[in-house]
Amino acid sequence: MTALPPHPFDDRLYALRTRWEQYVADGQLEQFIEFAVAVNSLAEHFARLRLPGLSRLCEGLENAVLARIGDAGSHPMRPQEMVALQRQIDALFGSIATSQPSVPVRRAEEKAPARDLEWHRPRSVWIVAAADREDVADGLQRQLNYFGFRVLRMGWDAEGEVEPGEAPLAVLFIPAGSTAEAAELARIEACRKACPASQLFYLGVASVIDPIVALMRAGIDVAIPDDEQPSMVVNRLLDLIQTEEQERYRVLVVEDSRVASTLICRTLTEHGIDSHAIADPGRLLEVLESYRPDLILMDMHMPRFNGVEATRVLRQMSAYQTLPIVYLSGESNIGMQVEALRLGGDQFLIKPFNPVLLAAVVKTKIARFRDMQRSTRVDGLTGLLNHSAAKARLKAMVESAAPGERFTVAMIDIDHFKAVNDTYGHPVGDQVIRGLAWLLKARLREGDLIGRYGGEEFIVALPGTDPALAQTVLDRIRVDFAALPHTHPGGALYATFSAGLAAYPTVDSAAALTESADGALLDAKRLGRNRVEIADC
Ligand SMILES: Nc1nc2c(ncn2[C@@H]2O[C@H](COP(=O)(O)OP(=O)(O)OP(=O)(O)O)[C@@H](O)[C@H]2O)c(=O)[nH]1
């Protein structure tokens, strides 16, 4: 097996390798299931880190493993099957060893903040552009540089462009037409192979399914339609460098058999999922309220009333209409299963259950449920938290603040924005709003609150930061924003913003913090705009 250098995924790789070696030595089904769990855990880890190429390789291995789980009688597997799996494992380990996820570095011209805080650092991006699309590439490069990305340009014909250790965050392919030719697909395939950890974008694809499928097969992760502005890709890249902190998944198990619920909860725990079990479905509403699960695993046959009846009740309540409900039951009657799905269930799994399948179903359903919930909290124009979500987050920050904890809230407003709209039109105004949103995303930290509070007004909250440091940080962003060109048909315009700051716990409620920061913002406007003022409390 390929020898591995020290690597950030070491623990997971070690678990995967030793479990495989144990299975190779003893050939027991239980060991194979443990190995399957290790493969699943590594695949999820790569997905979380947004390393699409490695995720894909790992998922390929996972599929091959799942197909061979079978039962105790099918283990140890035949020697040829073992060799085939060993080859897949070697290919995966080889790719991991050669791919080095890019390490963030501080921008050369950026000074370290006065007190060291982990503000976002740039990453490198490659742009592969056709000769007649250099203008699009130039515009994108300028924007990417402003948002702190390092850009490397190359043509479609370039060969051997890969420098060792130079794995980019993303590669942007800008083709001459809207359909990829065979040579272009080959170029993308070569890049996919060379950069398994990078996200590959193809800009300007026609909205026709066949060419998009061909691009995906060649290794493209995101095909951007030709009617979407190329600059939108900047936002997607900023999303890539901001991994949202994830709360652990929570599953409520409704199951009257103690043995079954213990087994289910143990499987969930092994996959890093929190669970809570109740034996009496009569307690469902009360526990849903207190535990707030992301999914219910529901038994079908229970005393008093059954799982389908419980599901029907939940589906009549607006709070639980979209909550995923998966039946886990020994019921083998297909008619009953179909009826259970018609009456509100999302999926039907049979007991005794396959632990890997159960975990995969639970995780994918929860991931989709959380994505859907997230979309109701996000502002469509900028991708930031919307007004109500930002307000709720600030309230939660105040309520959960430990004694002695401090943070600073900023209200930010673009100067003379009405004139931008009036002179250049609404779409250009929108681009200016996006520009500021992206700059904030690029420059602030993962744990900072950034929201679009109103039209051209933003709210920011910086944990562990006093007003003086917050002023330094926002002032730097203010200067960069003033230098950011916003293109319009006649050239480029420049905009500025003003900001007001208020500090917790000097001001100790969410409403008073926004009010106080708003007051300081008004002062900044009165004092001439393009400045950051601290509220005097
Ligand atoms: N393009 C665009 N404009 C918006 C959006 N939301 C609000 N606006 C416009 O933003 C402008 C805000 O203008 P004002 O509140 O008068 O303030 P201002 O011109 O920015 O002036 P000062 O804040 O005093 O510097 C209004 O013309 C709104 O129509 C939006 O989503 N897109």
From TrEMBL:
Keywords: Phosphoprotein
Domain spans labelled Response regulatory: 250-366
Alphabetical list of Pfam families matching this protein: GGDEF (PF00990), Response_reg (PF00072)
Entry EC no(s): 2.7.7.65
Phosphoprotein in keyword set: yes
Chain positions with 4-aspartylphosphate modification: 299
Domain of life: Bacteria
SUPFAM superfamilies: CheY-like, Nucleotide cyclase
All copies of domain GGDEF, residue ranges: 405-537
Key word Phosphoprotein present: yes
Catalytic activity: 2 GTP = 3',3'-c-di-GMP + 2 diphosphate
InterPro entries: CheY-like_superfamily (IPR011006), Diguanylate_Cyclase (IPR050469), GGDEF_dom (IPR000160), Nucleotide_cyclase (IPR029787), Rev_trsase/Diguanyl_cyclase (IPR043128), Sig_transdc_resp-reg_receiver (IPR001789)
NCBIfam families: GGDEF
Record protein name field: diguanylate cyclase
Organism whose genome encodes this protein: Thauera sedimentorum
